[in-house]
Each structure stands twice: as structure tokens, then as C-alpha cells.
User: What shape does this take?
Amino acid sequence: MVRKRSRARAATTNGGGRRLVVVAAFDVVNFTALVEADEERVLAAWRALRAEIDPLIAAGGGRIFKALGDGLLVEFTGPIDATRTALLVQETVARTAAGQDAAVRLELRCAIHMGEVTLEGTDLLGDGINIVSRLQAHAPIGGVLVSAAVMDLISGRLSQPIEELGPITLRNMSRPVHTYAVGPKAPGARGGMIDSFQRRRPSIAVLPFVDQSEDEGASWFSDGLVEAIIAALACLPELIVISRSSVLRYRGQAHDPERVRRELSVRYMLTGSVRRVSGPGGDKVRLSAELSDCETGTAIWSDRFAGAAADLFQLQDELSARVVTTIAPQVQESELRRVLKKHPESLDAYESVLRGLDLLYRVEDDPWAKALPLFERAMTLDPSYAAAYALAATCHGERFYEGTSPDPTADHLEAERLSRLALSYDRFDPLALSLCGHIRSWLFHDYDHAIELFDRALAANPSAAIAWLRSSATFSYIGETREARRRVEIGLRLSPYDAHVFFSYGLAGLAAYAGGDYIEAANWARKSMALNPRFVGNLRFLAASLAASGQFKEAHEVGRALLRVNPAFSARKFAAGHAFKDAEKRRLFGDHLVMAGLPE
Assistant: This one.
């Protein structure tokens, strides 16, 4: 979000002769041939169409700064307004064309680009205008083509099909422009995108907490706490959170789950009470909270929290953070229990992803082969579901990395292709960004790009535990182990009850190993192995850490466990291709693995 705001500010504050603008280019398809065949009627049709679309452009904040006879160049204040307006224009043109004679039926192409231009009076000139003018020739008929500069700022904010078209070489321009088709006319757009993640993700209402304080005028604290919990939950892309204004009417009322479900259309509700009490040790605040399933009317979780009231605002933040880090996995676990009762063929996109997530890193043979079809099903049901693409890419990457792939080259290529598609569909989804960042780093050793993706994930949601955790691995790879440890600590604090916490312990072990603290690395890796004894990524570092710290008997036992899961493992070959940036670190890693009794 920080990045989006800064880009938008640049568009409005870069004054003088040069400025950053968003420009849309509209062009009538095959206009010359149409005019040649029936000039009078075609020009009349174009004038009539202009009378319809010009007001739409103006209403969308657009300024037509150049009319080219058969086309328009339009300046917009932002990329979202530009794209929405362009889609509306194309919808209007298609509706008008449906009732016209083929001889005068007009269709448009549209391209949108953001770049620097020179202002001369009311006209705009420069490289940005040249690019968008040439891009429109590549747009699908009746559709909208956008450059990567625009996609960066609209992805995830428009409910429209998107297809990555890749780099396009433009006439008389040395550098290709990466492009995306947006809207129903995108080449790969599919209809009937039912069961989309946006509509099917779980919803929750945080109802006003009952204030039981001795001071009856202190209800502001419970109100502030509820507001903080709502704000924190709203940062989680996997949840739909009802706004505070919509739940205020339930203040002072008995909370009936069925009524809340019916009136707010939510699956879960969070209720609670706050009590401030005075005592010899100072003021205390006690909070009780309960999470209920509105569909069944049952409580699925409850807990109590307490703290000193010395700094009420700090305590408010702490309590809300503790509730949220507990609630998120509880909701996911409840959703999973619900999904596991359904037949696989009846699962929608969101539910397929949930079931696939449950299978990942399972203590069984080849969980990737079992999870991958579920992610593929999710992609089929919802072709723009970024997280499904990122998780499918992770499956291919893990099979390649673990050495269990039936076709390593194909898995490597699929991991690359699917991760790029995930980013094209939603460039601000923390889960997709984090998984793709990890893939860029661990599989392709593209550390700078990986860190950029993690930064975007944390800008979108600073409480995204997966972004903190997965990014720690990248900092371990590049040798910044202090930062790697800091990030994994934050991630564990944000998500202590994650079903995949063994993965987090493994990342903590990696950070310690990369920093040369082999005893601590072995301790973390043992914790990971206790929860998942077949997690190969952890077994390698546990064996290496034990050998490096002189615990050879245990190292050999772990080495044998690793070979039972991955019989073809080669210590030197694996270490040579590892993501450690430093060649000496890779060599030392190979030595430690050999010392653990693993075959060279």
C-alpha cells in the first residue's frame, strides 16, 4: 500500500514541463476500410458513439487531450479510474454495436500506460505517449491492454479476468513493454467464474464487547479494543470482516448466532467482555473472548487475556494482536473441518485451496502429488485466483528441490510459469507474494526480486506472518543472518499456532546454521523434526548442524532418516546448487552433510 500511495503522489506532484501521467489510447478497428466503403454512415456512427463515450470518460476523471479522427488519447488521474473507465467504454461500444448493421459497426481497441510526458499547453508529448499509441495496436478487439506499470497498481483491485501477454516489441523502440489484457475480452478469459475466492472466503463479525468495568464511563476502552481487532483482522486477505458501523446496533443486546448470520451474512462471530478492576498491584484489565460458528450455533474457541492497565493504548494493541493471532488459525481450522466433510468433487476454488494446504508437507509419501490437483482445480474454477497459482508453483518447486520429481526440468519450468502468473493476477496478495518471493530466492537465486516481493507483501499487510517467515530464508541465503533471525522471530510471534509451524522452526534452524550457531540450529531443527519427521528441508540442516557441532551419532541417524525419504540424495551435488549466495558456505554445507554420513 505504501508503494501504491507513493506512486500515486508522484503522478500529482511532479510538476513543471515533465510529469508522470496515466494515458489511455482508444482506436477504431479497421476505420479506414469502413470509411472507404461508406464514409457518410461510418462518420455519423462515430459521432454518435462519441456522444455516448465522451461523457463516460469525463465521469471517470478523463481528459481527452487529442482526438485523431478515428481515435482518442485520454489523460487520467490514476490507473484504476483509467482501467474502469476503459472497460465501461468498451462495454458501451459492444452494446451499441450489437444493434448495428455490419457496415457501420464500430469496435475499439484500448491500451493504457503510465509514464513521463512533456506538457505543451493542453497537449502531452513524449515517450509515454509513443508507447501507449503503439500498444493499442496489440490490444484485443473490444478489450483493454495495460502495461506492467499500470498492472502494478490495479492488480487485486478490479474483479476482472487478467491474462499476462508478456513482453511486446514496439516499432522503433529498443525495449519491449510487458503487457496484460484486462476484462472479458482478455484472450484467455473464461466465463462462469463461480465460487470465486472473493465470494467464498469466510466472513466474521466482531460484535461490541460488553464492558463490565467498575467505572461505567470507561466503555471507550472496549470500543477501541473492538475497533483495533476489526482493523487487524481486516488486514488478513483470507477473511471478510464486517465493518464496525454495521455491528454497533448489536450493542447491549443478546448475541444470537442465527440472527447475526441472517442479518450480516457471516459464518463466524467474535464476542467478548472487558473488565477493568483496581487492586493493590495497580489497575488490571481482563478480557474474555469467544469465537462462534453462526451456522451451527456452537462455540469453537474461547480464552481469557489479562494485562496491567498502566498504558491502556499499548495494552489495547497487545490484546488485539493476541486475539488476532489466535483467531486466524482457529477460523482456518474450523473451515478445514467443514471442508473435509465435503466430497472433493463438490469443492469450490477456496475450499480446494484449503484442502490442498492441509496436504502440504504431510507426514506421508509425495504430498505434492496429492495437493497439486486441488490447486489446479482451484485455478480452473477461478482462473484469477493468485494464491492457487502460487501454491501450485510451490508444489512443482518442492518436487524439483527435494529430488523426487519425475521430470525435474518440467517442474522447474512450471514453478517459474505459475509463480509469474500468480503475480500477474494479484500483485498485492501477501500469500502469493510471499510464496513467489520464496520461489524466486530458493529456486532461482534471484534475491533482489525476492526481497522486493516480500516488501510488497509486508506493505500490503504488515502482520502477514508468512511474509516475515519466508523472507527470513532469503536473508539467511545472502548471509544477513541477524535480519534472518529477527524476521523468523516476528513470524513466530505473529503465528504461533500455525499448522505448519514445523516449517517455521526449520527456518529458525536455517538462520542459526547460516550464522554459524550450530547448537541452536540443531535445537530448532529437532523441534521441527518432532512435528514432521519427513520434512526433508529440515532434515538436511539438522544432519549438517549436528555434524558441524560434533554430534556425529545423532547426525548419522538423521542422515539415515533423510535417505529413507529421499534415497537418491547426493550431498555434494545438492550443496553445490543450494541457494546460499556464498560459494564457501555451499562448500562447507556439503562437507557437513558428508560428515553426517550422507553419500557424496
